[in-house]
Amino acid sequence: MASALETLCGQAFGAKQYPVLGIYLQRSWIVLFLTSMFLLPIFIFTTPILEVLGQEESIAKVAGKISIWSIGIVFAFIVSFTCQMYLQAQSKNMIIAYLAAFSIGIHILLSWLLTVKFKFGITGAMTSTILAYWIPNLGQLLFVTCGGCPETWKGFSFLAFKDLWPVVKLSLSSGAMLCLELWYNTVLILLTGNMKNAEVSIDALSICLNINGWGMMISLGFCAAASVRVSNELGRGSAKAAKFAIVTIVITSFVIGFALFLFFFFFRERLAYIFTANQDVAAAVRDLSPLLAVSMLLNSIQPVLSGVAIGAGWWSIVAYVNIGCYYIIGIPVGVVLGRIIHLQVKVRCCVSTYEAWVLQNSQGIGP
């Protein structure tokens, strides 16, 4: 939902309506805080929810424990995402990068201390994660409110409580678009948990999703760049410059995606040993690697097109596309191939690869 701020701030900055950006930021804080309060029961009752969905009791209990700790992360996201969107719209990216680098250093140190040195397990890992989120948040807030954005931040204002409904509508549209993508991976894990040898399948799929996430981080960077450039240029009224930015970013992202495709295609299960010493899991990752590599290639384009949609404010259109690709096509096909034809976990990557291809074509640009 915070991505709505990307559209609003980007276009307002392009139109040189600078004071409006600070108001949009505060309105987004209000909307996201209230939304997070409504979501709290899901985090509190994660264990019984997962048990009702058929997950193993041991998995559900661990997930429930992590979910309780995640409440602090959810509220950290409110500040983190909104400030990032606000700063990116003004091309103030270096402060975000500096704080992120500092956060990674703190996270690595605390993770080692709390999980390896003192062996606090999940408690230590989640404590480290929460601190790693909140420390840069404080830095971003201080930068925004203490003179880092003099043109766009004019202080807290009661105007933030006015005209909230348009922000709510755009936030819901943006949330629907992105959540439909993110929740799909969660559905994959849930379906995999009901397969034979579920523990190995979940481990293998999780490793593949993590590796895919490495490549996605690069693509998401281009997604942010596309969103900012498109929204800024549209705010200025320059559609031609927006089109040029789209073509440039898509080509650049695809070239990097192709390099990653070759890398992951040839290294296969050797990468799995970064995450696990279990040979069965590594073998499962090896079987999934070709599909993973193709998925990474296609995913180098799709997030960029999502960034274009964000910049242009086409949230609702892409939300419908995601519903069709992920839920009307993807999940039913995955269930049939995985449960009836018994392709097991391999079908999850296969369906994800196909959907990435469908998504990028339905959003307007083919490979």
From TrEMBL:
Keywords: Membrane, Transmembrane, Transmembrane helix. It comes from the Eukaryota. It is a multi-pass membrane protein. One of its GO terms (molecular function) is xenobiotic transmembrane transporter activity. It is found in: Membrane. GO terms for cellular component: membrane. Pfam families: MatE (PF01554). Its main location: membrane. The chain crosses the membrane at residues 29-54, 66-89, 95-118, 170-192, 204-228, 244-267, 288-311, 317-338. One of its GO terms (biological process) is xenobiotic detoxification by transmembrane export across the plasma membrane. Belongs to the multi antimicrobial extrusion (MATE) (TC 2.A.66.1) family. This is Protein DETOXIFICATION. It comes from Quillaja saponaria (Soap bark tree). The lineage of its organism: Eukaryota, Viridiplantae, Streptophyta, Embryophyta, Tracheophyta.
